[in-house]
Amino acid sequence: MVSYDHFTLNNGLHFYVLRDPTTPMAAMNILYNVGARDEDPNRTGFAHLFEHLMFGGSVNIPKYDEPLQRAGGENNAFTNSDITNYYLTLPKDNLETAFWLESDRMLSLAFSEKSLEVQRQVVTEEFRQNYLNQPYGDAWLLLKPLAYKVHPYQWNTIGKEISHIENARLEDVKDFYFRFYNPNNALIVIAGDLKTSEVERLAKKWFEPIASGKPYERILPAEPKQKNAQRLEVKRNVPQTALYKAYHMCARADEKFYASDLLSDLLGSGQSSRLFKTLVRQKQYFSEINAFITGDIDPGLLIITGKINKDVSVAEAEKALEKEIQKLIQKPPTSAELRKVKNRVISANTFGALSALNKAMNLAYYAHIGMPKLINKLTDHYEKVKPIQIQQRAEEILNPANCSTLVYESNNQVL
Question: Is this prediction's pTM over 0.85?
Answer without folding.
Answer: yes
